[in-house]
Task: inverse folding
């Protein structure tokens, strides 16, 4: 899945379906208004754009719990299916052989809950090649809730790692977002949880215990803040030793809202914007990184789009560090 060209596919996922508040569905439009496309183009990137949700944004609506404890389950699963199809279709465009791709995927506006669908698309694309895909899950939350668990909101976004790992309690309807053989897209060998807010009450002791007991690789927001580049380099080396390709998932709630309140729901991580972006650019510098998913951006928190513009500048800098030669 090498990148021989300067091509980027921007895949828009305008969605609020798994949210506590509305607003994230407007993120792809905000990225365009804040100059993402122009800045990438000016740097020499060749941009193609598509939407994973051709019928328009999947909006937020108040909802009660379904009988199994989840909210908006059927609509969420349907949206995940569309995202998996969009990612998979793009992976097959202009490919010379199975397991190869010619362009970087930049997935905008997606919610965390789409990670299993994205990973599933890559695993299916790589089937039969012997190659492996991994993920840097850069997020304040470990998202290990199950639908019937105490304190669970019922929002499927809070169950993302549960569905990535297909651990006990995962929704049956989400188990289709798996590898070709039906196994989970993530285990303790192909994910790094990076920037986890160990002090957040949203990360229950039982969830942290699950990560510890099952030997998952975790870098907390505290250690990332202390040495962002070094922590990212160490995490990247560990992951690169296990997988052939890497997806970087950036949930902007990993950044402390006291300095950068762009995330949909605040989490007081103590991680500065500059430190988070240093880590992002380190992950993007790897030749094995084939996609960046940016999630949980709520433009309603950014009326002048100044924060969105700052985020774009850092992402473009990171992308430019991997720009192939024009020769």
Result:
């Amino acid at each position: 899945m090498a990148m021989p060209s300067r091509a980027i596919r921007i895949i828009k996922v305008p969605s609020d379906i798994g949210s506590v508040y509305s607003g994230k569905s407007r993120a792809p439009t905000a990225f365009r208004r804040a100059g993402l496309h122009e800045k990438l183009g000016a740097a020499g990137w060749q941009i193609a754009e598509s939407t994973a949700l051709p019928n328009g944004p999947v909006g937020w609506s108040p909802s009660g719990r379904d009988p199994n404890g989840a909210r908006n389950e059927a609509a969420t699963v349907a949206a995940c299916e569309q995202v998996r199809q969009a990612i998979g279709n793009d992976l097959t465009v202009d490919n010379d052989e199975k397991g190869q791709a010619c362009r970087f995927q930049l997935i905008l506006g997606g919610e965390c809950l789409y990670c299993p669908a994205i990973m599933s698309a890559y695993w299916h694309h790589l089937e039969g090649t012997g190659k492996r895909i991994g993920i840097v899950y850069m997020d304040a939350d470990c998202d290990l809730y199950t639908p019937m668990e105490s304190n669970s909101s019922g929002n499927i976004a809070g169950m993302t790692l549960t569905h990535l790992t297909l651990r006990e309690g995962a929704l049956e309807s989400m188990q289709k977002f798996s590898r070709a053989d039906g196994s989970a897209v993530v285990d303790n060998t192909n994910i790094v949880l990076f920037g986890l807010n160990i002090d957040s009450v949203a990360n229950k002791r039982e969830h942290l215990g699950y990560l510890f007991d099952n030997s998952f690789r975790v870098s907390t927001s505290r250690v990332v803040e202390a040495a962002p580049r070094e922590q990212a380099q160490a995490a990247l080396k560990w992951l690169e030793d296990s997988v052939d390709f890497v997806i970087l998932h950036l949930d902007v709630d990993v950044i402390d809202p006291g300095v950068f309140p762009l995330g949909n729901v605040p989490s007081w991580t103590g991680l500065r914007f500059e430190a988070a972006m240093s880590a992002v650019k380190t992950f993007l510098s790897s030749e094995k990184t084939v996609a960046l998913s940016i999630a949980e951006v709520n433009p309603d928190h950014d009326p002048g789009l100044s924060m969105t513009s700052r985020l774009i500048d850092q992402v473009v800098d990171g992308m430019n560090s991997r720009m192939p030669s024009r020769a």
The domain at 7-322 is CATH 3.40.800.10 (Arginase; Chain A).
